[in-house]
Amino acid sequence: MSGLFGTLNTATKGLQAQQTALQTIGHNVANANTTGYTRQRVTMQADFAQTIPGVGQVGTGVRVGNIDRVSDQYVNTQLREAHSTTKKHESLSDIIGQLEAVFNEPSDSGLSNKISDVFNAWTYLASNPEQSSARTMLVQTTETFTDTIHHMANSMESLHKDTLNELDKDALDANSTLQQLENLNHQIWQASVRGFTPNDLLDHQDRLMTDLAGKIDITVDRDKFNRVSISIDGNNVLDSNSRKELAVVTGFNEAGRPVLSNGEEVEGDVQLGSIVIKSEDSMATVNAKSGTMRGTQDALSVINNMQGDLNEFAYSFALAVNTIHSDGDLENNQLFFNEVTKENAASTIRVSQELRNNPDAVVSGRSLTNDVSGDGTRAQAIASLQNQTLPINSDGWTFDADTMKINSNATGSTLFGRYNSMVTEMGIVKQQEDNMLETQNALMHLLTQRRESISGVDINEEVVDMIKFSSAFQANSRVLQTISEMLDTLINRTGV
Questions:
Q1: The whole model's pTM is what?
Q2: What pLDDT, in 10s, does the model give residues 137-152?
Q3: Which is it for the CA torsion 286, 288, 293, 294, positive or negative?
Q4: Could you give the CA distance from residue 39 to residue 30 in angstroms, rounded to a whole number?
Q5: Is 411 helix (H, G, I), strand (E, B) or coil?
Q6: Residue 445: helix, strand or coil by DSSP?
Q7: Cα 404 to chain centroid, rounded
Q8: What gap in Å lies between CA 491 and CA 496, rounded to an integer?
Q9: pLDDT (tens digit, 9 = 90+) per residue, 355-366?
Q10: Residue 357 near residue 380 (C-beta atoms within 8 A)
Q11: What does the DSSP 8-state code read for residue 280?
């Protein structure tokens, strides 16, 4: 179309294009503080020209080519991966902090002070073997020591269960996110096949993928319709045709087989806390590398190690005292502690019932019947355990009845040293995770700033664009007004 009506149409398209640009700016400004929002820009193109014989091609105005997201997928991928790693260290640091609270060291109520109190009570008995009150104090002090270990063991077991439940909850949350991404894939496909770019849906898709990466590390691929396919440790969990679910091994059934939280059995030799990808007809164990699920798995491992170390310490402590107190005959002579096993020593160690009922039966001298008044030799031998080096493996212990010592020339560590090593090891893990978390937070801050510099909404920039497009809108309005006046003159004043 040429002539005045063609020019009228050109001005109208200019108005519409500037209006679309202004509407997009308004959308940007409205979402300036929306988390994960990517600013949008209108791409304008010259419309198809009209060919006029003898004149050439005459422009017909402008058209909106597209409304684009100003986004850098490389930065988004970096940010998603860094977020996953940060969540791993955050989760592990938080749980180790709770484990530190169980040990409560250093403090007056910590186990280290209770250990010292027990050895001090044996030392006092060695100096005052004729005093009945010294034996009573020893039994009561040791009962406080065992109560403290029981509390620690029970608290660690509760923390272990809570951590396992948190891991299972993360799996359920990840499944919910995968389902939302599956629905978004369908919505994005519907818009894309119609030639539209669903910018806000793509923003929502990015936010969901970041949330999912916070749970477990993922690999993302996109097709030409911007649908995402997601895999974990090489195992596909979402594509355009199917979706699988995550599950966690939370226990063992009566047959000793590993099961999921819903009771479903898992084939193979898998550990408690293992992550499984399951579909209707298959299961596959995956190895998470980052995300809260990996951090929680690592925390479970630390808790398991601490539980094992505490049981080993309690067993070694009870065995050492029992060996000296019974003169090496654990089968026939009086034990100071009840019989314990390595697997559950921390939760079962107690002063024997006979000694709790009759503290005077505590053996303090060389004679097992306490018939020598003032003899505190055996009590002193037990008190000396505080500084005596013992082999790490208690199965190889030997007792010398003459010296009343266990492996006097052995290399290893003291009972006190074993406990201190546990506390130190846990402190080192906590410090490492705190340092890693601090480093990751700094990286996240840097990447977030980089993303915001590319995709974030700058109010000042939007205001400048608003003035630019508003001026263009007014200019196109002026063209319309001029054409309207020309048409009025042509139609109403020329007598045609």
A1: 0.88
A2: 999 999 999 999 999 9
A3: positive
A4: 11
A5: coil
A6: helix
A7: 50
A8: 6
A9: 999 999 999 999
A10: no
A11: S
